[in-house]
Amino acid sequence: MEIKKIAIIGGGNLGGAIAEGLVRSEAFEPSNITVTRRKLHLIEGLNKKGVKITSSNTEAVKDADMVFLVVKPYQVEDIIKEIRPLLNPKKILISFVAGVNLETLEAAAGEDIPMFRAMPNTAIALCESMTCLSLLPKWSEYQDTVSALFDKLGKTAVINEELMSAATVLGSCGIAFALRFMRAATQGGIEIGFGAEMAQYITAQTMKGACELILQSNHHPEKEIDKVTTPRGITISGLNEMEHQGFSSSLIQGLVSSYHKIEKNK
Ligand SMILES: NC(=O)c1ccc[n+]([C@@H]2O[C@H](COP(=O)([O-])OP(=O)(O)OC[C@H]3O[C@@H](n4cnc5c(N)ncnc54)[C@H](OP(=O)(O)O)[C@@H]3O)[C@@H](O)[C@H]2O)c1
Predict the structure, then answer these.
(1) Mutation test of ligand 1: which of 20, 38, 80, 132 has the most ligand atoms closer than 8 Å to its C-beta?
(2) Is the distance from CB of 120 to CB of 172 less than 8 angstroms?
(3) Ligand 1 centroid vs 69 CA: distance in angstroms?
(4) Which residue from 33, 129, 156, 259 could staple onto 150, CB 3.0 to 4.6 Å apart?
(5) Chain region(s) in the chain for CATH 3.40.50.720
(6) How far does residue 96's CA lie from ligand 1's centre (Å)?
(7) How many CA atoms lie within 13 A of 151 on its CB side?
């Protein structure tokens, strides 16, 4: 199935990032991407890149082959009701909304509308997202088409829907968790002598290198850590002090707390 035109309903933080990524990927002509929101002036930057912008959701959906829903959870059902007359079994609906399951989406849109849930992160703007997808088995014929699209925007994994909340925490909130690590490391770097800009640069490239070591080798992180921890050395001394202060434990507790919050709000 060829996907030519995409409508992104809700051009906020994530919707805007998706549009940026689609343009950057060069997989779509910018003029085949339409982004909607009510405060249109906030997405004029996308328009300057050739992306169509409108405050009319129905106009955006009318000609689209794929419709991305990127609004807040409490808005989903009203917006599906608004665009429902323009949906049909030839348009794939993809919901990025955290905490709203396929059953609810199907009840709102109709059983005959092919639909997926997608959970990416804001690195989608740079085509470096981790995107988890889930679907009802009846739509498996579209899985390759949808996965192929998200493969252009980073890495993709198809997961069971029951894991979508966990994917939201680990992959989507994960951007903020990783960046808080970066901020803390930068602040430490300043205290030991670097200017803020250089401290951030060294931290960011070091984090990128650490990620590549794991992504390219698939090693357990501890295997790479063992290579830099000399007995009685400086790295193990710092690492152990971080652990005494609750480093791993606080991360795990933070993840679990975010997860409980999603599950509670469902
Ligand atoms: N941010 C992330 O990293 C991330 C990651 C994964 C999933 N998500 C999910 O993505 C969804 C959006 O999150 P977000 O962070 O991007 O929120 P956001 O920045 O608030 O974006 C939502 C956008 O929807 C627009 N909107 C509201 N009502 C609308 C309507 N009737 N028609 C068209 N657009 C409308 C809003 O713009 P106007 O007020 O101008 O209309 C707003 O820009 C959420 O459900 C969230 O769970 C977010």
Answers:
(1) 38
(2) yes
(3) 9
(4) 156
(5) 6-159
(6) 9
(7) 7
Kindly report the CATH number that applies to the domain delimited by 6-159: 3.40.50.720
pTM higher than 0.70? yes
* Backbone φ, ψ for residue 50 (5° rounding): 100, -5
Q: Return the CATH class of domain 168-265.
A: mainly alpha
Atom of ligand 1 nearest to the CA of 72: 45
Residue 215, both tokens: 């992504």
pLDDT less than 50: residues of the chain: none
pLDDT for 100-109, tens place per residue?
999 999 999 9
- Name the token pair of 90: 């030839």
Pocket of ligand 1 (CB under 6 A): 9-15, 36-39, 57, 70-73, 75, 79, 96-98, 119-122, 172
Ligand 1 geometric centre to CA of 73 (Å): 9
CATH 1.10.3730.10 domain span(s) along the chain: 168-265
